[in-house]
Amino acid sequence: MKTAVIGVGAMGRNHARVYSELPDVQLVGVADADAEAAAAVARRHAARAYTDYRHMLDELQPDAVTVAVPTVDHLEVALQVIGSGIHLLVEKPIAASVKEGQQIIAASQDAGVHLTVGHIERFNPAVVALKAHLAAGELGCVFQIDARRQGPFPARIKDVGVVIDLAVHDLDVMRYVTGAEVLRVYAETERRIHSTREDLLTGLVRLDDIVGTLTINWLTPTKIRELHVIGERGMFRVDYLTQDLYFFENATAQGAEWETLRVLRGVSEGRMIRHVVAKKEPLRAELEAFLSAVRGEAPLAVTGADGLKALELAQAVVKSGLEHRVIAV
Q1: Which value, to the nearest 10 degrees, does the dihedral of the CA atoms of residues 31, 32, 38, 41 take?
Q2: Does 44 map to a domain?
């Protein structure tokens, strides 16, 4: 299968690397407005370099393409790829606006090409394992889901704020692991060091009968990527960075305490279990899933509709932060 990458910045370079490593896959070309960047990536992976992605599509005719250009350019590039009849993965967010995302989805459906969106956290092995444990009912009724995604300011991000760049991951994961839909959001946002957009978010998310919280920023000098899911039988904790999944047991719910103490305490500390999770690079899992769908071996793991919903929720969070009010979704 012939693959190509349009935009070889931070994420695009990694897409090119993984495509070049996959069996039965050939990275035939990369395109970037920066000729030196395109040439460097192409040399590393024995591919051809282009500054005009349209020329690359016409000349190489790849089977599948990653679009990793700045968000503001997603619509133009995606429509060109779709118009060439090529399957595509668009890095998150799907587009700069919901309307543009809808245009991309409609075009892909009309052309009969596969469209997926790069919500990479769905492919983190710890998140995959968490979803399986929740689906098996091991936590019982889910009460709360808390997301922390914090770290230093990335100078490369200029066209979106921290909500669209980072919180969009957690909004998607909340829906993915719980199977619940978001009803409303409320956000407090601040702009501390970013020149034009928010770089700090504290948010509340209502998902059916579950309360969600978001603690997201570009202001923390160490990288934190965690998810906590609390329910009647205890709490799961995901560490995205180490791909670890822990379960903290509510001993009361497991019947480990005598009746009088259970009435007095309600919740008590039980065992801590570290689940065995087979480690794997999420991007490799994501691209394998994408190409399996292109080959007709499996359905798309992340659809255009999934990407559009995540963008819609993120934009609702941004709006809430600007207008200081609850936004119904």
Answers
A1: -70
A2: yes
Q: Judge whether 247 and 235 are in contact, CB under 8 Å.
A: yes
pTM over 0.85: yes
More confident residue, 69 or 254: 69
The per-residue pLDDT for 15 is: 98
Residue 281 confidence class, pLDDT cut points 50, 70, 90:
very high
Whether residue 93 is preceded by a cis peptide bond, meaning omega within 30 degrees of 0, is yes
Say how far apart CA 274 and CA 75 lie, in whole Å. 43
Q: Long-range CB contacts (< 8 A, 24+ apart) of 11-16?
A: 11/68, 11/91, 11/118, 12/41, 12/66, 12/68, 12/69, 12/91, 13/41, 14/283, 15/66, 15/68, 15/89, 15/283, 15/287, 16/41, 16/44, 16/45, 16/47
Check whether 10 has a pLDDT greater than 70. yes
Is the same domain home to 109 and 233?
Answer: no
Q: HSE-up of 134 (CA within 13 Å, CB side)?
A: 29
Domains held by the chain: number: 2
Cβ atoms of 225 and 239 closer than 8 Å: yes
SS3 state at 302: coil
Is residue 285 one of the residues assigned to a domain?
no
Q: Identify any residues that bridge with 90 across adjacent strands, giving them in sequence order.
A: 67, 117
| pLDDT recorded at residue 261 | 46
Q: How many CB atoms lie within 10 A of CB 212?
A: 22
Let me know whether 196 and 250 are in one domain.
yes
Burial tier of 63 (Cβ tally within 10 Å: 0-12, 13-18, 19+): middle
d(CA 25, CA 156): 30
- φ and ψ of 185, to 5 deg: -135, 155
Q: What is the mean pLDDT of the chain?
A: 94
